[in-house]
Design goal:
Helices cover about 45% and strands about 25% of the residues. The protein is an alpha+beta fold. About 0% of the residues have low confidence.
Length: about 350
C-alpha cells in the first residue's frame, strides 16, 4: 500500500488547519477551515489572519514564541469568531512549518465537536432510563387515571352548577397526565430505525409544509438549502419526527408572535463519529434550524437533551430527549447553540453508501 500524498493528507484533516507566512498572512486552508470560515481558500489567500479571525488570545505573542523557539504551543478554551457567527470555544495548536522560514501551521479544534462526541453515550443512557420509567408509569398510573376520569364525569352529571367546574378540573388534569405518559411511552414504543437512502430535503419540505399549516402558521420559514447534498442513511418517518419537533420548538419560542425560522443545509467534513473499534464514521450532512426567539435559559442550556428538562411553562421536557434518542439511533449528533435572538439546533448525519443510494 502506497502512502497518500501530502495534498490528500491535508484535505483529510478533520479539523480546520491554516498555513500562515512570516507576515501572518494566510497561505493555505484545508477544506475544514474553508467550512469553518465560511469562505474559499482563493478568497482568503494573502489576507492577514487577524482580518478573518477574532481570537480571544494574544496570538501575536504566541506566533513570535513559536518562531523564536521553533516549538509547538497549545492554547486551550479560547473564543474564536469569524465575524459571520457567534464565537465558539476552541483549542488551538500553533507549530513551525518545517522548511519554510517563519511559516506557522495553526490547527483549530472547536470544542463543540468534542462535546458532541462526549454527549453521545449520555444521550443513550438517559433514553434507556426514560424507557424504563415509561413502562413503570404506564402500568401503574394510566389505568387508575382512567377510573378517576370516568368517576369525575359521572359525578358531574349529578352535581350543582357551582361544583361542575371542580369535576371538570379533575377530568382535564387527568387527561393532561395521560397525555404526558403517552409522550413518555414513545421512548419505549419507538421501533429501531429502518435505515435506507433518504433525500433529506424531501423530509425538510414535508416538515415545513406541515408546520406552516399548523403550529408555525404565524412564522416565516426561510429555506437555505445546498441542493447538491447526497442522500443520508436513515428512517424518513423518524427523521420527519425530529425535524417537526425542532420546528415546533422554534415556533413556540416566539411566544405566539411573528418570527423567523431558517432551515439551512450544507456539507461539513469536520465531524466524525468514533466507533467502538476506534475508527471514525464521517457525519458530513448538516441541518441547522435557527429561530430568532429569546434563546435557551442559561441554567438549562447544558441539559436540554435530558428527559424532563424544559424552558417552557407546562413543558414536559420530552420532545428534545426523544429527538436525541432518534438521532443517536441514526448514528448522528445534535447540538444547540443559543444566545438571545438566535438559537440554532444543528443535526449531523451520515451519507448513504452508494450501493443504497442507487436503489
Amino acid at each position: 500500500m502506497s502512502l497518500p500524498s501530502a495534498q490528500t493528507l491535508w484535505a483529510s484533516l478533520p479539523v480546520p488547519a491554516i498555513l500562515i507566512d512570516a507576515e501572518d498572512r494566510l497561505i493555505d486552508l484545508n477544506p475544514s477551515a474553508e467550512h469553518f470560515l465560511n469562505t474559499s481558500e482563493k478568497m482568503l489567500r494573502g489576507q492577514p489572519i487577524f482580518d478573518r479571525l477574532a481570537i480571544d488570545a494574544p496570538l501575536e505573542q504566541v506566533f513570535a514564541r513559536v518562531r523564536a523557539n521553533h516549538s509547538t504551543l497549545y492554547i486551550n478554551e479560547v473564543d474564536v469568531g469569524t465575524g459571520d457567527r457567534a464565537p465558539v470555544i476552541c483549542n488551538l495548536q500553533a507549530a513551525p512549518l518545517t522548511g519554510t522560514e517563519g511559516a506557522i501551521l495553526l490547527l483549530i479544534s472547536p470544542r463543540e465537536f468534542a462535546d458532541r462526541i462526549g454527549r453521545g453515550q449520555g444521550m443513550k443512557t438517559a433514553a434507556r432510563s426514560a424507557i424504563g420509567m415509561a413502562e413503570m408509569l404506564a402500568h401503574e398510573i394510566k389505568n387508575p387515571l382512567a377510573g378517576i376520569t370516568g368517576a369525575a364525569q359521572l359525578l358531574s352529571m349529578n352535581l350543582a352548577a357551582e361544583d361542575v367546574e371542580l369535576a371538570d378540573l379533575i377530568v382535564e388534569e387527568s387527561r393532561r397526565i395521560v397525555k404526558l405518559l403517552e409522550q413518555v411511552e414513545q421512548f419505549g414504543n419507538l421501533r429501531p430505525p429502518e435505515r435506507k437512502a433518504v433525500n433529506i430535503h424531501d423530509v425538510l419540505d414535508r416538515a415545513r409544509k406541515s408546520a406552516l399549516l399548523g403550529f408555525a402558521s404565524h412564522m416565516t420559514v426561510l429555506e437555505d438549502y445546498d441542493p447538491s447534498l447526497p442522500a443520508t442513511l436513515g428512517d424518513a418517518d423518524q427523521l420527519l419526527q425530529v425535524v417537526l419537533n425542532l420546528l415546533k420548538n422554534a415556533a413556540e419560542a416566539a411566544g405566539g408572535t411573528p418570527g423567523t425560522i431558517r432551515i439551512h443545509t450544507f456539507y461539513d467534513l469536520s465531524l466524525r463519529l468514533r466507533r467502538a473499534d476506534g475508527g471514525g464514521t464521517p457525519l458530513p450532512l448538516q441541518i441547522e434550524i435557527t429561530d430568532d426567539g429569546p434563546g435557551i435559559p442559561p441554567e438549562i442550556a447544558g441539559d436540554i437533551f435530558d428527559p424532563f428538562v424544559s424552558g417552557r411553562e407546562n413543558g414536559t421536557g420530552l420532545g428534545l430527549a426523544l429527538v436525541s434518542k432518534i438521532v443517536a439511533d441514526h448514528q448522528g449528533w445534535i447540538t444547540a447553540d443559543s444566545v438571545p435572538g438566535r438559537t440554532t439546533f444543528r443535526l449531523s448525519l451520515p451519507v448513504a453508501p452508494k450501493s443504497q443510494e442507487a436503489n
